[in-house]
Amino acid sequence: MLLYQFRKGTNPRRVIIYLAEKGIDVPRYELDYENDEHRSPSYLNVNPSGRAPTLVTDSGLAITDSAAIVEYLEECHPDRPMIGTDRASRARVRSLERLGSDLVARGQLWLWNRTAAFPAKEPNPSNETADRAHRYVSELLDVLEREIEENQFLAGDRPTVADCTAFTIFQTARERFDLPFGQGHPRLDAWYKRFRARPSADY
Ligand SMILES: N[C@@H](CCC(=O)N[C@@H](CS)C(=O)NCC(=O)O)C(=O)O
Questions:
Q1: 2-76 homologous superfamily
Q2: Best substitution site from 7, 11, 64, 111 to test ligand 1's pocket, by max atoms within 8 Å of Cβ?
Q3: Tens digits of per-residue pLDDT, 156-202?
Q4: CB distance 18 to 73 below 8 Å
Q5: What is the pLDDT of residues 95-142, one digit of tens each?
Q6: pLDDT digits (tens, 9 = 90+) for 43-66
Q7: What are the start and end residues of each CATH 3.40.30.10 domain in the chain?
Q8: How many angstroms separate the alpha carbon of residue 195 from the centre of ligand 1?
Q9: Whole-structure pTM over 0.85, yes or no?
């Protein structure tokens, strides 16, 4: 197996954090983002979207989406499940994980406009667009703030793939760009700080 990644990329981090929480490792290849290695013909041959992560399995299958990679790895390693333990808990984890995925997508749209760090995505960042995107971000934060209740983790008392997914956009905004993200949501703020203290969250 080989995992193509950007060590600090939001979507690759879903897989990187999951692997650390799960206690497994796979060989990695760090793509050179600055020099557009993800747009090189050899990488486009592996993942035509030119995005990361990609997991190439031992049989040569290229899995080109972070959620699909995590589900594949869960199936390879069903012990200590991080996707729920029965039908009902799996449904809950998946619901929360999809909220997390939406949060990442909306959060990235906000970041591309809130910073000048992603010229390939947004050559003309606009505060007005950032503010509009942030309304959609806030709507999801409000939902997650209710859903977490008094739990330690998003789906209960143990970490799941939902935490690995939602955490990434908080960390990108707060640590890479020193921007507020979820500070107005006290339960999520406390959850973020708890999860950040776990070794899996270290860059
Ligand atoms: N849905 C995909 C999205 C992957 C994605 O957008 N990755 C970003 C890094 S966070 C990327 O490769 N960006 C490079 C680009 O789009 O040029 C996944 O979750 O794997």
A1: Glutaredoxin (3.40.30.10)
A2: 11
A3: 999 999 999 999 999 999 999 999 999 999 999 999 999 999 999 99
A4: yes
A5: 999 999 999 999 999 999 999 999 999 999 999 999 999 999 999 999
A6: 999 999 999 999 999 999 999 999
A7: 2-76
A8: 23
A9: yes
Give CA–CA dist 45/52, Å, rounded: 13
Pairing of strands 2-5, 28-30: parallel
CA distance 144 to 166: 9
CATH code at 87-201: 1.20.1050.10
Render 11-76 in DSSP notation, one character per residue. HHHHHHHHHHHHT----EEE--TTTTGGGSHHHHHH-TT--S-EEE-TT--EE--HHHHHHHHHHH
Give the tokens for residue 85. 């333990």
Q: State the Cα–Cα distance between residues 120 and 184, nearest whole angstrom.
A: 30
Residues of the chain with CATH 1.20.1050.10: 87-201
Ligand 1 centroid vs 186 CA: distance in angstroms? 29
